[in-house]
Design brief:
The complex is a heterotetramer, with 2 copies of chain A and 2 copies of chain B.
Chain A lengths: L73 H26 L13 H8 L7 E3 L5 H6 L4 H9 L31 H15 L6 E6 L6 H13 L3 E7 L2 E2 L2 E2 L1 H4 L16 E5 L3 H16 L5 E6 L20 H4 L5 H12 L4 H25 E2 L2 E2 L17 H10 L2
Parallel strand pairs in A: 1-2, 2-3, 3-7, 6-7
Antiparallel strand pairs in A: 4-5, 8-9
Chain B lengths: L18 E3 L2 H15 L3 E5 L15 H5 L4 E3 L4 H14 L2 E5 L10 H8 L2 H4 L9 E6 L15 H4 L5 E3 L4 H13 L4 E6 L25 E3 L11 E4 L4 E5 L2 H13 L3 E5 L2 E3 L3 H11 L2 E8 L4 H12 L9 E5 L9 H4 L3 H13 L1
Parallel strand pairs in B: 2-3, 2-4, 4-5, 5-7, 6-7, 10-11, 10-13, 13-14
Antiparallel strand pairs in B: 1-8, 6-12, 9-11
Classes of the chains: A alpha/beta, B alpha/beta.
The complex binds thiamine diphosphate (2 copies) and magnesium ion (MG) (2 copies).
One thiamine diphosphate sits at the interface of chains C and B.
Chain lengths: 410, 355, 410, 355
């Protein structure tokens, strides 16, 4: 076919790069309350549309509207707000600590606090999350001690992971928080395996897998969907679409699909898309998915639409690849401000109480930090013994490791 | 086999009525059965493993006996199989999964290396990964480059894994029971050429069956063989031959043909390695030959040679030699030129003896 | 949630196992001609339905009907019929040769001949297939010499692959046939890479990837869809759904999805499902997809619905896991008989010509076999030199391999 | 560094105006630029490689200069990246891809081992795979277990691959040019601790920059360094130290501190290995120490030790010793206890000398 036109190569590009003026006016944001809430056992084919919309509860005036509203009391919402505020202040302190050389590395959640904080409250004790590095909200909202998190970040003597792991790669079994891997996506299929195990055991506990938009390109994302779909595993498969994967915009991973939620359609898995900056919507959708899992109806895929307002990590400066003010232009707003506005609107909260809460939380975080720093930071204070380096490779130390530890003199 | 000494799951006192003759396939099946019967937490899955019982039949009958929740077919996704197993282990089950051929473990390599092997370490013991990953390994069946590989060195380099290679039905059962019982991930490499009979490398002679070998006497019930202990399968003073899997049989044949009084050690477990047994033998014989099917360069023989020269330097009377697969993919038609058969081993025994 | 019912574990099972009576009456087969033929540039969203139907051209009376009919002349169809007949006879001879010990292994195409044979005719010279082990029809329909195929199967001295590869893992660059891998699914993303390279180079050639139903569970299937969708690669992604993956029925790989074609929907890739036993339908759909690729419109996913009537390979006996007569009950019939009936109906063919053609083809195949066997079979005759074992590991033999070859004395 | 001898891309005659000072990052970028400018078939892609220019900036500026068809961002799918590269190579392009960290190569391992490495062989040369897979390797940056690994032995065991590890900007450029030019797949491991300056293991001393090192003098333009040739970076008679990557610098520092007159060989290419250079040196010195960051067991040092004892047996006056990472995952806080630093090397130099 020599008369065919030459092929050309297509590389998706974000619309905006440094220097451009942020503009999200072309992004269609459905009105809060406008997306229906199907029964949990409705056939996945019948709810295809939910993967192409955005489930939202909080409207512009801060009112909770529509069929997804009403899953939480005001008291619970105030607690949720405090969790998000805590996470933000925690992040803030740790970003600074990293700059001060107290740790090697940190990753914050700025702009995404609602996702993990609200999700956590839809789970029951005993359920297990398989998180990535950006779900510390699960720990905060689950009441895990902040000083313990900081000890991990500082790799000090009280680090529950004995200094072995990169900062923020927590593990907290009793808090339903699986050990975070540095390798992307591996946890997604593990979550499915855990859920399969629960079903095999005739248990009632369910699992939740977590993955970022960029990481959905990894193979284990596919493995997870294949296994979840095949064995109808009681698992919630969460995609946190914060628009960016380090310097790469979501279009590189999503390709020509309308949304990440659509990935579920190839597997007959009910797939929902939700406003990730809306604490109430996240919670309601998580509850819905958890009920499906617990009623043995199988997996649910959820895409949380949010925005990574900060850098990817302390090693990253996003101004090199996106407009500086892009995050402010982000049309779904800030999760903390939105929930605050809602609670003020309902009368359960006020600016004064907010300011006061902020001060209280800051004090708590600082107290936790002091406690952790009393023990040590990466380069100061007390650290796990180098002996620890040789422990836990196996349950029992084999002769060759004993020999090596001996060589070190520890 | 003169001067043959064996330690196995069949302890002297229990010999007799509670022994059965099995092929290696039957012994592996029996180990599964015993482990599943003893512990509800043991689940078995893999490609074609459930209804059909595995392409080599190692799991035949298990689904019928224990139901599809305990033994089931998996999608063709090695990373999915191992990844799901890691999650199940984190839950508290003890998955024993099959990779259809060792040659197909690569898609699962990330889950094995980055996840299974490091989970206990990275979580400081909060989560553990007691899984067994079985896979048929090695050549000798005209399987070409994707049904013949011996990737053990790709596991022995990974801290956190144990690696086991049985050479007969007795060991296969006992070691598999120990592997399933082990609190850590174990790679269990099954020399497929030994599934139905021993093989001494003389491919032009009639096929042997396990039925006539004393090594097919397998103890019934729960009879684990501890990981980490080598087995001196032939005592001798002239030189020490280190081998595992199929090559144990080939080495024994070669030793007999060479007329040397070699000590032959079946390593059985590569990690943790029974260094003491190796060192004691080589210090006594002063000479060492290493045999494996895997490609030579960076094969497990390299580690063995490095350890032996390090620990037996002053006792060595000749360089440690290695006989191994050539540094090429495993070819189809040239199988018997590739396979380190008795002739090549005899030649190298001579070289070690004459050095 | 202690009041929740216990979870149960779900393992999909085929409806029928050995001993059961085959019954496909519940399988809905759309009428031939009933599925519309969209423009090649129609939006993938608009043709979602094509992934859940079956495009068919040949009706029960052997007539070619509907919008997908008419892509081939009678002469071309006669040629196609001869290709399928050739492949079937070739398979037959090689199955026997394997039983006779002339080779170690063989894999046949019984019941699936139309797929690769018809597809081949939709490509242009220079296009590249990335096949699995069950697309020898591409070679037969492309005029590759049968004796050369047999030399590969026999690993004899004239084997173009020098005895290195397992039988049927052919390679034929000049015939647009990429070297078949023993590792499932790897070729699917490679096909996308080849297509990307063609686009990068401003070429006009396109690629086709091939995969079996069972192998879609592998990770590289996902990688292929992600890359094809992202870079709009000029590639046709073919899934041959022959209902079985060794002993495992398609439900284990497909899970809860309606069809394999549906997998494309998660990626915005137009996805078609076609009667794989209908030579005309396969060709028409392949043409459509090829035009999309060549017009730079990007990838197409095609699921060919067919049935593996024989064993998986010479090592397999399907009576252990499915009813013996299942293949006869298969509702889409036999591709050879269907095309034959059509050509007889149009007057382009007759029973006599068919019988005669069969005899001619058998003679051709036997002649090719004689030619190959004159050179050698696996254990007799002339073989590639063991020296060949050391060649082609690298372009130039490095010192360590030279040393090893020297050691062998070759 | 007394008695320092180097062969590099900077031939004596061309020294002068056509030299530039570069960090290793700049040298790698320059090699890409030269290769892309010279040959349209060279395409570069990987995660964050396009617009941003790579998390270590090794491809910065290439997309702007050559356009997004020649240098582009890839989805986070290592198997996709390598799999697509294999397909592109089969088409006739020469892809040079980046895996963001060597620790993340495992998802691509199947495509590397089963496909790239064996394509020429299995197709009898009909299809070839001239690809380069670059990946930052090694520790020393507090990267924890998933940003510190040295997986070279997982490549050296695979027939069909070449494995390269440069230790300075000159070599990085020259070897990368040769790798891109090579007709076969090359694994190019870039010691990330050396990206911006040399590092002798004294982590408590001020960070050094390449700017003051003569090794940052990099020839401009096309200046490949042939693969397969080691570099004697310090001549000496007491013992031979074999090292590559970061450990070359650490070994040199340790040698200086030990006061021995060691010969230090920078292997540069692990496969094909410059066995002749190693054997010649060890036969002369009679002693050998091997140093690498990767875990000890089944590391590339095992192969080196096996080769040395085999080829230099009658010349060896002491066992070959290895200094390496411990057989544990790479820990975060204990980095400097894990890293085989100068003190450990000095100790082992003593042990080799005193044996
Ligand atoms: C297997 C693997 N490949 C690459 C990386 C490097 N890496 C770390 S985070 C990241 C981006 C992930 O993006 P996304 O999934 O969107 O998550 P986010 O950071 O936005 O939360 C990359 C490429 C890795 N950790 N693991
Ligand atoms: C990575 C990998 N895993 C497993 C196998 C073993 N195997 C070979 S063919 C096959 C079944 C493939 O089924 P399908 O994809 O449906 O293709 P079909 O044989 O039906 O044409 C399996 C499991 C393999 N070759 N490669
Ligand atoms: Mg993201
Ligand atoms: Mg199939």
């Amino acid at each position: 076919m020599t008369d065919a036109a030459k092929l050309t190569f297509h590389v998706p590009e974000p619309e905006l790069r440094p220097g451009d003026t942020p503009d999200f006016s072309h992004v269609t944001i459905p009105q809060a309350g406008s997306v229906r809430r199907p029964e949990v056992d409705e056939h996945p084919q019948e709810i295809r549309d939910l993967a192409f919309s955005i489930i939202r509860v909080l409207d512009r005036e801060g009112r909770a509207v529509g069929p997804w509203a009403g899953t939480l009391s005001d008291a619970e919402l105030v607690e949720g707000l405090r969790h998000m505020m805590t996470l933000r202040i925690f992040d803030n302190r740790m970003m600074t600590a990293q700059r001060q050389g107290k740790t090697s590395f940190y990753m914050q959640h700025l702009g995404e606090e609602a996702v993990a904080c609200a999700f956590r409250k839809a789970l029951d004790p005993g359920d297990m999350n398989f998180p990535t590095y950006r779900q510390a909200g699960l720990l905060i909202a689950g009441g895990y001690p902040m000083s313990k998190m900081m000890c991990q970040i500082y790799s000090n003597e009280a680090d529950p992971l004995k200094g072995r792991q990169l900062p923020v790669l927590y593990s907290a079994r009793d808090h339903g928080f699986f050990s975070v891997s540095g390798n992307l996506a591996t946890q997604f299929i593990q979550a499915v395996g855990w859920a399969m195990a629960s079903a095999i055991s005739g248990d009632t506990r369910i699992a939740a897998g977590w993955i970022g938009d960029g990481s959905t390109a990894e193979s284990d994302f596919h493995a997870a969907l294949v296994f979840a779909s095949t064995y109808k595993a009681p698992v919630i498969l969460n995609i946190v679409n914060n628009q960016w994967a380090i310097s790469t915009f979501q279009g590189i991973a999503r390709g020509d699909a309308g949304t990440f939620a659509a990935r579920g359609h190839g597997f007959g898995i009910p797939s929902l898309r939700v406003d990730g900056n809306d604490y109430l919507a996240v919670h309601a959708v998580a509850k819905w998915a958890a009920e499906r899992a617990r009623r043995n109806l199988g997996p649910t895929l959820v895409e949380y639409v949010t925005y990574r307002a900060g850098g990817h990590s302390t090693s990253d400066d996003p101004s090199a690849y996106r407009p500086k003010a892009e995050s402010e232009a982000w049309p779904l707003g800030d999760p903390v401000l939105r929930l605050k506005a809602h609670l003020i609107a309902t009368g359960a909260w006020s600016d004064e109480r907010h300011t006061q809460a902020e001060a209280e939380i800051r004090a708590e975080v600082i107290a936790a930090q002091k406690e952790a720093e009393k023990i040590g930071t990466l380069h100061t204070g007390r650290h796990p013994s180098p002996r620890e380096m040789f422990e836990d490779v196996y349950a029992e130390m084999p002769p060759h490791l004993l020999r090596q530890r001996h060589e070190t003199g520890f | 086999m003169p001067k043959c000494r064996r330690t196995s799951c069949a302890s002297a006192t229990r010999r007799g009525s509670d022994m059965a003759r099995m092929t290696m396939v039957e012994a592996i099946r029996d180990a599964h059965d015993v482990a599943m019967g003893r512990d509800d937490k043991v689940v078995v899955f893999g490609e074609d493993v459930g209804y059909f019982g595995g392409v080599f039949r190692c799991t035949a009958g298990l689904q019928a006996k224990y139901g599809p929740s305990r033994c089931f077919d998996a999608p063709i996704s090695e990373s999915g199989i191992v990844g799901a197993a890691v999650g199940m282990a984190a839950y508290g089950l003890k998955p024993c999964v099959e990779i259809q051929f060792a040659d197909y473990m690569y898609p699962a390599y990330d889950q094995i290396v980055s996840e299974a092997a490091r989970l206990r370490y990275r979580s400081a013991g909060e989560f553990t990964c007691p899984i067994v990953i079985r896979m048929p390994t090695g050549g000798g069946i005209f399987g070409g480059q994707t049904h013949s590989q011996s990737p053990e060195a790709l596991f022995t380099h990974v801290a956190g894994l144990k690696t086991v290679v049985p050479s007969n039905p007795q060991d296969a059962k006992g070691l598999l029971l120990a592997a399933i019982d082990d609190p850590d991930p174990v790679i269990f490499l099954e020399p497929k050429r030994l599934y139905n009979g021993p093989f001494d490398g003389h491919h032009d002679r009639p096929v042997e069956s396990w039925k006539t070998s004393p090594l097919s006497e397998v103890e019934e019930g729960w009879c684990p063989i501890p990981l980490g202990r080598a087995n001196v399968v032939r005592e001798g003073g002239d030189l020490t031959v280190l081998a595992y899997g199929t090559m144990v049989h080939v080495a024994l044949a070669a030793v007999a043909e060479s007329g040397t009084d070699a000590e032959v050690i079946d390593l059985r477990t590569l990690i943790p390695l029974d260094v003491d047994a190796i060192v004691a033998s080589v210090r006594r014989t002063g000479r060492c030959l290493i045999v494996h099917e895997a490609t030579l360069t960076s094969g497990f023989g390299a580690e063995l040679a490095a350890l032996v020269q390090r620990n037996c330097f002053w006792h060595l009377e000749a360089p440690v030699l290695r006989v191994a697969g050539w540094d090429t993919p495993y070819p189809h038609a040239q199988e018997w030129h590739y396979f380190p058969g008795p002739a090549r081993i005899v030649e190298n025994i001579r070289a070690v003896m004459e050095a």
